């Protein structure tokens, strides 16, 4: 018998849930001596009720888990603490965060019954800015991966546009995220290519919409999910026609560009600088 993620509260610790790890990434800290600069690990967990929750494992506890946790894996978690999700930078809408402690049992389920989805996204329109957002749009004018010189050395970069058929947003992606974005776009064959940008920070700056990536951000292209099919069908219904220029052969020069510092969640709440992914909203011609 399993508890549903939607039923979690802070009243007890003898919870038992069956979940899929849909995303995971480390949190760094300069003070994390002996852990290679890693303070802990973040997990996004999803259950068969399509509810997702953010979980956190401190680095010392991570090392003592009975086995490795992998993205996409199915697990049973038993006996864990829960706390309220505070602050403006919540990764999912759930009001509870799971804390995996030394008392927590993490059991891998080797045979996947596929009753739990591999992804879940909560979308908002770019006009409805909130703490962290997922954005879905069609990709246009993708300029393949290139490397440009910056004052801190060479950096990978890709550029493309996102559109809902009415408005277009210019996107620039830097660093490792640019490499993975280029890879998933290259593998996407069905047109128009539909992109999902997950866990991004949205804000208004100088009368334009900007999106900044965090360590938790991902870029997906043509993900095999109903929301992508629905977005493509909506574009077709609205009479959208993808431009012929779907892939640019433009080569970037080595002109010096100013890189943008990567921000942790804590730093982002204290600073205004942005990292990797800047989106400027434009009105479609």
UniProtKB/TrEMBL annotation:
Signal sequence, start to end:
none
Query: Taking every annotated instance into account, which residue ranges of this chain make up the domain Replication protein A 70 kDa DNA-binding subunit B/D first OB fold?
Result: 2-107
Q: Name one Pfam family in it.
A: DUF223
Q: Which domain of life is it from?
A: Eukaryota
Which protein is depicted?
Replication protein A 70 kDa DNA-binding subunit B/D first OB fold domain-containing protein
């Amino acid at each position: 018998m399993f508890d549903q993620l939607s039923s979690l509260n802070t009243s007890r610790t003898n919870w038992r849930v069956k979940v899929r790890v849909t995303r995971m990434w480390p949190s760094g800290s300069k003070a994390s001596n002996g852990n290679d600069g890693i303070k802990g690990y973040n997990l996004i967990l999803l259950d068969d009720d399509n509810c997702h929750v953010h979980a956190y494992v401190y680095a010392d506890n991570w090392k003592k888990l009975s086995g490795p946790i992998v993205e996409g894996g199915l697990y049973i978690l038993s006996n864990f603490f829960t706390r309220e999700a505070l602050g403006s930078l919540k990764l999912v809408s759930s009001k509870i965060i799971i804390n995996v402690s030394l008392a927590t049992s993490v059991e891998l389920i080797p045979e996947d019954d596929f009753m739990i989805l591999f992804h879940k996204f909560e979308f908002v329109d770019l006009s409805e800015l909130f703490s962290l957002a997922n954005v879905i749009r069609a990709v246009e004018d993708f300029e393949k991966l290139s490397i440009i010189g910056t004052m801190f050395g060479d950096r990978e970069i890709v550029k493309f546009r996102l559109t809902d058929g009415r408005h277009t947003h210019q996107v620039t992606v830097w660093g490792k995220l640019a490499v993975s974005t280029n890879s998933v776009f290259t593998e996407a064959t069905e047109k128009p290519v539909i992109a999902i940008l997950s866990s991004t920070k949205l804000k208004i700056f100088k009368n334009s919409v900007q999106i900044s990536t965090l360590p938790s951000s991902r870029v997906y292209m043509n993900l095999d999910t109903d929301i992508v099919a629905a977005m493509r069908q909506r574009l077709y219904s609205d009479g959208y026609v993808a431009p012929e220029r779907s892939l640019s052969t433009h080569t970037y020069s080595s002109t010096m560009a100013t890189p943008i510092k990567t921000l942790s969640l804590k730093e982002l709440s204290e600073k205004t600088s942005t990292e990797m992914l800047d989106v400027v909203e434009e009105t479609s011609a």
